[in-house]
Amino acid sequence: MFSYVSPDRIGRILEESGGISPAYYHFNHFLMECKNLFARHDFRQPRCFISYCWGSNSDLREQLQKDLIKLKTELEMLGATVLLDLSNLSSNINQFMDEIEGCDFVFLIGTPELKMRLQEQAQNNIKLEFSHIERKLSSKPDCLLPLIFQAEGNFSSAFEQTMPIRFIKQHNILVRDCRRFGDEWTNPESLSTYIGTLSGFGAEPKEPLGVIASIYGMANRELRFRDEYKLLRENLKYRLIRTNFAYKKLHKQASSTIGSSYKPFVKCTIWGISIIGLSAMILSQSKDINNYNQFHTSRGMLF
């Protein structure tokens, strides 16, 4: 007799054991390709500071901590130096805040708690840190990259919930959406906004310049460098589309084969097939992906 284990629970078990979802696997591959691109052309590695505020909800606090560690890890995979007080804080928090002056970019992590603490009358650590950011902004106007991480609703609503609106509008600063929607293990599309925000190049209508392109100054690079980066991003989109298609196809096949009378078993089985089967499919499709890359490279296609 089968006992039902939720996909979320299985995902957490695999993640804790060091596993990554298929969608995240492709994103990591993209990051490594970008690292090679930046190394080949001797790009200067940026120094970044992550500014955030803890919330009172323990679950949201734990999730934010995981998300920020992931962001730090991803940027470090590219070669950037990233300061996050979860791993870099010494005994003196004021000395750590002073590091902002020596950084090229500051990520302001948007959460409801951040906005609430900035609006308090009394002095607090986040307001002190924000004063350092304001001084840095006066000497380097493009240094601040606000990223929305935790909020409900659409982008406009999330912006209202999480950001110092008057300050952002006064300095004409672009705010980016870094939220994850749902569980990446059962729905690879849940990462589409996050991955798009980090990897974007502004090539599509209403698409802002992504975080990676911004901190590496891709908009001001020579055309050949920009084209190389855009090709890497197009390959990433191709891989993610194939992953999403495989998930949907497996779900449809399993549902039609087993039927709806065993839904708990179907759900768990589909999920298991998706994770185990897709891992094998990713490896088996590597030849197709390489051929796709060579095809576009040989044609010199621009994106």
Q: Kindly provide the name of the CATH class of the largest domain.
A: Alpha Beta
Task: Name the CATH superfamily assignment of the largest domain.
Answer: Toll/interleukin-1 receptor homology (TIR) domain
* Radius of gyration over all CA atoms, rounded: 21 Å
Determine the mean pLDDT: 79
The total count of helices amounts to 14
Oligomeric state of this protein:
single chain
Q: Kindly, what is the distance between the CA atoms of the first and last residues, rounded to a whole number of angstroms?
A: 52 Å
| The number of domains | 2
Order of helices and strands: HHEHEHHEHHEHHEHHHHH
Strand content: 5-15%
Provide the structure class.
alpha/beta
Largest sheet: 5 strands, parallel
Q: Which term fits the overall shape?
A: globular
- Strand order, largest beta sheet: 2-1-3-4-5
CATH topology of the largest domain: Rossmann fold
Q: Total strand count, please?
A: 5
* Spans where pLDDT lies below 50 across 5 or more residues: 1-5, 260-271, 273-303
The helix content, as a percent range, equals 55-70%
CATH architectural category of the largest domain: 3-Layer(aba) Sandwich
What does this structure look like?
- The radius of gyration is 21 Å and the shape is globular.
- It has two domains: 1-20 and 28-43 and 222-303, no CATH class; 44-179, Toll/interleukin-1 receptor homology (TIR) domain (Rossmann fold).
- The protein has helices spanning 7-16, 22-40, 58-78, 85-88, 93-98, 112-118, 125-139, 155-162, 165-170, 192-199, 211-215, 223-258, 263-284, 286-299, and strands spanning 47-51, 81-83, 105-110, 144-148, 176-177.
- By secondary structure, the chain is of the alpha/beta class.
- It starts with 6 loop residues before the first helix and ends with a helix.
- Strands 2-1-3-4-5 form a five-stranded parallel β-sheet, with helices on both faces.
- α2 runs parallel beside α3.
